[in-house]
Amino acid sequence: MVASVVRTADGARILAIGGANFPNAKPGAKTPAERGAKVFYDEILSINPADGSCSVLAKLPYPIGYAAHTTKGCCMVIAGGCNMEGHLATVTRIKADGSSEVLPALPTTIAYPAFVQVKGKLYVFGGQEKAESVTCLSSSYVLDLKNPAAGWKELAPMPG
């Protein structure tokens, strides 16, 4: 699950999105058979920090876990991640009211990346391309939110 504080007209809310777990796991499960199937979620939850109340605002068009996220003002952006279909390249902006907008997809599928928003640009670093990957990516990408139609641009690879 990813979660961040977003601004609203009446203050702030916490958006909590997606996530994954093993809801049918036996107590003390140690093996895949004892854990059962992993379940991914698509809910966009809104939590009021003043009283702890929580409600489902909306649902994403896809379940997601292990995504990167960043927040700016009234919006949260999630990038990459994975679900039961595999790793994702999707990028979605979610507003405080739960509405969402699809942004240009990443150039490759990525789960577990780092993500930041600086001066109207989104940056994605590293992660893993596929579930069976045994190494981390050294790639980094940038998307200019003033010109999202131009898509993601690859930056110099990270050292190491």
Give the SSE layout.
Layout: E1 2-8, E2 11-17, E3 20-21, H1 32-35, E4 39-47, E5 54-64, E6 68-72, E7 75-79, E8 82-83, E9 86-87, E10 91-95, E11 100-103, E12 114-118, E13 121-125, E14 140-144, E15 153-154
Antiparallel strand pairs: 1-2, 2-4, 3-4, 4-5, 6-7, 7-10, 8-9, 10-11, 12-13, 13-14, 14-15
What's the main sheet like? 5 strands, antiparallel
| Gyration radius over CA | 17 Å
The helix/strand order is EEEHEEEEEEEEEEEE
Mean pLDDT across residues = 93
Distance between the termini: 28 Å
Describe this structure in words.
The protein has 160 residues and is mainly β. The protein has 1 helix and 15 strands; from the N terminus they run βββαββββββββββββ. The chain has one helix spanning 32-35; strands at 2-8, 11-17, 20-21, 39-47, 54-64, 68-72, 75-79, 82-83, 86-87, 91-95, 100-103, 114-118, 121-125, 140-144, 153-154. The strands form 4 sheets. Strands 1, 2, 3, 4 and 5 form a 5-stranded antiparallel sheet that branches. Strand 1 and strand 2 (11-17) form a beta hairpin. The protein is flat, with a radius of gyration of 17 Å. The two termini are 28 Å apart. The relative contact order is 0.15.
Which features does this protein show?
160 residues, mainly beta, five-stranded antiparallel β-sheet, four-stranded antiparallel β-sheet, 2% helix
